[in-house]
Amino acid sequence: MTKQQANWSPYDNNGGSCVAIAGADYCVIAADTRMSTGYNILTRDYSKICKLADKCVMASSGFQADVRALQKHLAARHLIYQHQHNKQMSCPAMAQLLSNTLYYKRFFPYYSFNVLGGLDNEGKGCVFTYDAVGSYEKVGYSSQGSGSTLIMPFLDNQLKSPSPLLLPALDAVTPLSEPEAVDLVKTVFASATERDIYTHTVHPFNTALSNFSLDVLQGDKLEIVILNASGIRREYMDLRKD
Amino acid sequence: MFRNQYDTDVTTWSPAGRLFQVEYAMEAVKQGSAAIGLRSKTHVVLACVNKANSELSSHQKKIFKVDDHIGVAIAGLTADGRVLSRYMRSECINYSFTYESPLPVGRLVVQLADKAQVCTQRSWKRPYGVGLLVAGLDESGAHLYYNCPSGNYFEYQAFAIGSRSQAAKTYLERRFGTFQNSSREDLIKDALFAIRETLQGEKLKSSICTVTVLGVGEPFHILDQETVQGLINAFEMAGEEAPAADQGAAGEEGAAGEVVAAAEEGAAPEEGAATEEGAAPMDI
């Protein structure tokens, strides 16, 4: 007599991937716009990216209902912070808040795999990567989601992250320029799309051009958010729809 | 109002059917420095006089942003005001979280009023000693409310609370007919004039007052000192004076000001009933 298992799960995986890359004075955060369940597509036009503060953006893949609840929770907390301190939360402060919020639900977690990207108080790019229960680390780049197993090794190869075991600790931000980083992100998603059914991006016509600003009305897209000293910019790139 | 045997507890009625503790709480509002509010169809302006304890200290914060579409000015026990502002902010955040839309102002003031009422009916509590001018903008338009320590609230076209507010109310009563269709700039100008009335001769500078604006397409925010000083200079240079400038020009010396202040304090207790009835009939 085998133990009866639950035949209902509170969670679902809506797929997709997110990436973030930190630069000397910018940060690039990107995610695809496909929302799926099982082998079906729910929508081709869903944003996984959320602006939490002026200089802090979060991209999350996983169960989007939990992601949305998490975003609302953080937004409310940020409003309270602004009332109390009369200023916006910095990215490292938001990073800690996110970690605490996730761990608070350690025994019924948010099924949300997050990357937080933004600028720290000195204007330098920073990226924080999380697991579902709040374990986090400041890194120079990261990816989460269904395509992360394909994307991460490629980013490691391209961005040559020094080993964290080396002393003295080396600076995590990439030496790439902003257009180069945006281009890299597009290339990375193009490759991930080919092999990950849950991530979808179109093979780009010209990876060298980084000023794609198409707001295509239908079809899967890659949404890219770039944060730098002049503010926040959003770009879209068409992805493969199959 | 004199001490009597019915004023010890808030839960004790007087034979005349009054709750003295609640009325004493409303006296506390009159002791605070002046705060005024006025509204048009599309904008609401709150302004207050900043009083610092001494030259060495900073002035107390009397106007709080509650949400993008709601602001509040207080007079009386500022600590009570701070706590109530925190409550209001919390209510707005929770409402937005649940309904993904801004809390209608009318709902917020009712909640505030109910909260104040509770303190008038518990023997272990005391009434809040602060009057709140709540300025808000929602789907039904621009609103200005006054919340009393008694738990009553009223909607106004314009109102003033705190010490020497009668002077401001007199000015507002004369001008309120034009407010509904006023432009944003005129509304701010009227607010500054009203503030000047409460100063009874003291020179109006941007360092002693705070002005905030809220309107259609304009989230609640505090005007910075330079903008306010610019506006003050503009209307003073134009030689405009408030229509019935009482002893405005005459009472510039500190001595004259003190005489006026002493007279005011004597007059204040008599204002008791008048403040409650409210100054201007309103145009909803």
TrEMBL record, chain A:
SUPFAM superfamilies the record matches: N-terminal nucleophile aminohydrolases (Ntn hydrolases)
Major localization listed first in the record, in broad terms: cytoplasm
UniProt-listed GO biological process terms: proteolysis involved in protein catabolic process
Gene Ontology annotations for the cellular component aspect, listed alphabetically: cytoplasm; nucleus; proteasome core complex
Keywords of this entry: Cytoplasm, Nucleus, Proteasome
Location of this chain's protein in the cell: Cytoplasm; Nucleus
Top-level taxon in the UniProt lineage: Eukaryota
InterPro entries in UniProt: Ntn_hydrolases_N, Proteasome_bsu_CS, Proteasome_sua/b, Proteasome_suB-type
Biological function: Component of the proteasome, a multicatalytic proteinase complex which is characterized by its ability to cleave peptides with Arg, Phe, Tyr, Leu, and Glu adjacent to the leaving group at neutral or slightly basic pH. The proteasome has an ATP-dependent proteolytic activity.
Family: Belongs to the peptidase T1B family.
Quaternary organization: Component of the proteasome complex. Component of the 20S core complex of the 26S proteasome. The 26S proteasome is composed of a core protease (CP), known as the 20S proteasome, capped at one or both ends by the 19S regulatory particle (RP/PA700). The 20S proteasome core is composed of 28 subunits that are arranged in four stacked rings, resulting in a barrel-shaped structure. The two end rings are each formed by seven alpha subunits, and the two central rings are each formed by seven beta subunits. The catalytic chamber with the active sites is on the inside of the barrel.
Descriptive protein name: Proteasome subunit beta
UniProtKB/TrEMBL annotation, chain B:
GO CC terms of this entry: cytoplasm; nucleus; proteasome core complex, alpha-subunit complex
GO biological process: proteasome-mediated ubiquitin-dependent protein catabolic process
Record-linked Gene3D superfamilies: Glutamine Phosphoribosylpyrophosphate, subunit 1, domain 1
Keywords: Cytoplasm, Nucleus, Proteasome
Entry-linked Pfam families: Proteasome (PF00227), Proteasome_A_N (PF10584)
UniProt-annotated location(s): Cytoplasm; Nucleus
SUPFAM superfamilies (alphabetical): N-terminal nucleophile aminohydrolases (Ntn hydrolases)
Segments for region (Disordered): 264-284
The UniProt record lists the keyword Nucleus: yes
PROSITE patterns reported in the protein's UniProt record: PROTEASOME_ALPHA_1 (PS00388), PROTEASOME_ALPHA_2 (PS51475)
Major place of residence: cytoplasm
InterPro entries xrefs: Ntn_hydrolases_N (IPR029055), Proteasome_alpha (IPR050115), Proteasome_alpha-type (IPR023332), Proteasome_alpha1 (IPR035144), Proteasome_asu_N (IPR000426), Proteasome_sua/b (IPR001353)
Proteasome alpha-type subunits domain sequence ranges: 6-28
Domain of life: Eukaryota
CDD domains in the record: proteasome_alpha_type_1 (cd03749)
Similarity field: Belongs to the peptidase T1A family.
Subunit structure: The 20S proteasome core is composed of 28 subunits that are arranged in four stacked rings, resulting in a barrel-shaped structure. The two end rings are each formed by seven alpha subunits, and the two central rings are each formed by seven beta subunits. Component of the 20S core complex of the 26S proteasome. The 26S proteasome is composed of a core protease (CP), known as the 20S proteasome, capped at one or both ends by the 19S regulatory particle (RP/PA700). The 20S proteasome core is composed of 28 subunits that are arranged in four stacked rings, resulting in a barrel-shaped structure. The two end rings are each formed by seven alpha subunits, and the two central rings are each formed by seven beta subunits. The catalytic chamber with the active sites is on the inside of the barrel.
Role: The proteasome is a multicatalytic proteinase complex which is characterized by its ability to cleave peptides with Arg, Phe, Tyr, Leu, and Glu adjacent to the leaving group at neutral or slightly basic pH.
Protein name according to UniProt: Proteasome subunit alpha type
Upper taxonomic lineage: Eukaryota, Viridiplantae, Streptophyta, Embryophyta, Tracheophyta
